[in-house]
Hints:
257 residues; alpha/beta; TIM Barrel; two-stranded parallel ribbon; 45% helix
Amino acid sequence: MTQRALYLAKRFERTAASSNGKLVPIRTAQDLASYLKQRKENRGITAGLLGIEGAQALDGKIENLEWLFQAGYRYMSLTHFFDDEFAGSSAGANKGGLTPLGHELVRQMNARGMIIDLAHTSPQTIRDVLVESKGPVISSHGGLQGNCNNRRNLSDDEARGIARSGGIIGIGFWPTAVCGRDVRAIARAIRYAVQVVGIEHVGLGSDFDGGVTVPFDTAHLSELTGALLQEGFSAAEIRAVMGDNALRFFSENLPKQ
């Protein structure tokens, strides 16, 4: 899995290099600041930030983290659909917390400025990471149980813990995340999250990967803007949720250089 992650990072770099500047890789806060300045003058460019869904990409070896970091990966979730050598998954057999190796992984990620993603992790893993981590953590895609009750989503207390760390909760667009199949369900889920943790800690966590069913694609993201207006959000609040919160978070928490 480590070699596959390294291969995909190289493909991303090759794609960016052949894009004539239209795709900008983001590794540092400086990269992000430079890109945002460029984009004010050229709306035809975009940027990419590499992340990993599940620490199985380490092949069970802490030492592989440095290879992935040097390849450009800047955030990683500790599990995906199963427990691994580092932590328990929300869908795992045991759903335990951080293992001794997992505690060391959190420390090593903190030391590099690599962001920890709690999406797909078990409740005990979330509790353990919130104690162990010295930096803000995120939940990149999902929902809250108070709005949509299932084991994949966060409890209100878990969401508040992520917010207290200075993190962001990305609200997903698929039925398991929001208990609905239309854009209004997503807007309601965002409203609930804002009520629990505050507007500054909520963002988008679409999960646009082809593996889930969502009510629109990126070409029709304005549908969500309309639904948020109907839900009573102000223009400033919508800007925050639709991107400003994420930009602030990464500006503050990516490695400086």
